[in-house]
Amino acid sequence: MTKVRELYKCNVCGNVIEVVNPGAPALVCCHQPMVKLDALAQEGAKEKHIPVVEQTDAGLLVKVGSVPHPMEEKHFIRFIEVFTANQVLRAELTPGQSPEAVFAVEAASVLEVRAYCNLHGLWKDR
Questions:
Q1: DSSP state, 15?
Q2: Binding site feature residues
Q3: Are 116 and 78 in contact (CB under 8 A)?
Q4: How many angstroms separate the CA atoms of 27 and 47, rounded?
Q5: Is 57 helix (H, G, I), strand (E, B) or coil?
Q6: pLDDT at 126 exceeding the cut of 70
Q7: Average pLDDT, the chain
Q8: Rounded-to-integer distance, Cα 113 and Cα 43, Å
Q9: Would the pTM of this model clear 0.85, i.e. be above it?
Q10: What residues are designated binding site for Fe cation?
Q11: Tens-digit pLDDT profile for residues 87-120
């Protein structure tokens, strides 16, 4: 059964969806079951993927990686998400942008921060 905020990926076309209505027994795309993405919290790749969070005067600054993640046409961070008890805040990124975003939220209210790399999947800070 699917749960709210879970991410699933189609291994045929690359489509990624986030569940907003829970309960489906399975998700299908391109006539194949979609794969649930589990966020990693420990580095294994050469590039840095774990979100780094810092409270600033402008809001919550999230940078992907202690060393900036590449933002190239074939390898980039597609989005950064910040979860509170009742909100999902998302910054969608494109190649050429910096792998970071500022969110209008206090760090104390954040439950989780995650980032999605188009090649290496889903990563979280906690």
A1: -
A2: 10, 13, 29-30, 49, 69, 75, 117, 120
A3: yes
A4: 30
A5: coil
A6: no
A7: 93
A8: 15
A9: yes
A10: 10, 13, 29-30, 49, 69, 75, 117, 120
A11: 999 999 999 999 999 999 999 999 999 999 999 9
